[in-house]
Amino acid sequence: MVDTSVVSAWMDRYSTAWESNEPEDIRALFTEDAIYRTEPYDDGWRGQDEIVEGWLEARDEPGDADFTWSPLVTEGDVATITGVTHYDDATYSNLWVIRFAEDGRAAEFTEWYMTHPED
Asked: Which tens digits make up the pLDDT trace of 34-89?
């Protein structure tokens, strides 16, 4: 069962990886055979090596974004996260669905995001 402590610990590690872009920080988030989908109907990046490669190709540099999040629902081994990502030129609403393995790493990660209208 996933609870908010598991989600918070994972999100802390995710934030570290987002800022560091270190391959080992990224790998530590995901099981060896995890799937990371940047769009809900995408085949996704499969396995830690593809996840690291995809992450680094699309990476943000440290300090490029400000991200706030909160848990929406946890049920069984799945958690949903809502978030807002602020960049200098755009703001996005995020919805993440994360299926956790027993060890607290993500076995599946899917993200949805929408650009906020300009103010």
From this structure: 999 999 898 999 999 999 999 999 999 988 999 999 999 999 999 999 999 999 99
Number of domains in the chain: 1
pTM value > 0.90: yes
The one-character DSSP state at 90 is: -
Intra-chain end-to-end CA distance of the chain, in Å: 41
**CA–CA separation, 70 and 53 (whole Å):** 27
**Identity of the residue numbered 57:** E
**20 pLDDT above the threshold of 70:** yes
- Domain limits at 97? 4-115
Q: What is the CATH number of the domain that holds 49?
A: 3.10.450.50
**Residues contacting residue 77 through CB under 8 Å, at least 6 positions apart:** 1, 2, 99, 100, 101, 107
How far apart are alpha carbons 89 and 81 in whole angstroms?
23
Beta-carbon-side half-sphere exposure of residue 54 (alpha carbons within 13 Å): 15
